[in-house]
Write a structure and sequence with these properties.
Blueprint lengths: L2 H28 L1 H8 L1 H9 L4 E4 L5 H17 L1 H12 L5 H37 L8 E4 H18 L2 H10 L5 H6 L1 H15 L5 H42 L7 H6 L1
Parallel strand pairs: 1-2
Amino acid sequence: MALLDHLKELRNRLFKAAIAVVIGTVAGFLVYQPFLAALTKPIRDLNEQQGRQATLNFDGVASSFDLMIQVSVFLGLIIASPVWLYQLWAFIVPGLHKKERRIALSFVAAAVPLFVGGVLLAWLVLPNAVRVLTEFTPAGGSNFISAQVYLTFVLRLLLAFGIAFLLPVVLVGLNLAGIVKGQQLLKSWRITVFLVCLFAAMAAPGADATSMFYLAVPMLALFFAAIGLCMLNDRRRERRAVKRAAETEATADQATPSSELENL
């Protein structure tokens, strides 16, 4: 395709993805109230279960409207993710070989459930993180939490867990592309464990070890599973290379037919 045709194709893909996000945003607007109620439940639990004064504060006239728009767009991106991920994949696929298309499709198929699983795990960690962080409030103090600050905190938590669960998929993709070998990853398992724990300590907003534990253990399990897949793929690749070398050696002494030489 010419450059202009590629740009037209990109425009069409972006237009379809934008329509899906808009429809998803409308759906997010319809479920905004129950979603916000679930989002603010950890704050209400501080009042009901622990007797502490904590409220969500809207510090502007249009703050509640801005929050509704941001949450609806965020939900729209989540709801429409299969569509815009497919549009991205469909734009890239025509330029790939058949084997690379399978790899790209497998990457997308594995990335979506892992990202959703990370977000769901972050949702389970959220109440504990809010409880632990607000326990540092001095006696007699109250927690009047800005709605914008709270939303940023929650979205960062959800995205940190979701992106963390995607990293092993990236490792497998690099291995399939021949950039990283499984044996190299296995040799550096100590530094991998250290970096995962360091990332979990920085990404998990809880000041206690529990939220770090919730993030680090699944990440380590996924990382070592990814290393196992990389090593299996390396062995399969080595067997194919040995077989190809044996076939080449077996046919190396055979003369090339004259018909092939004439065609050449």
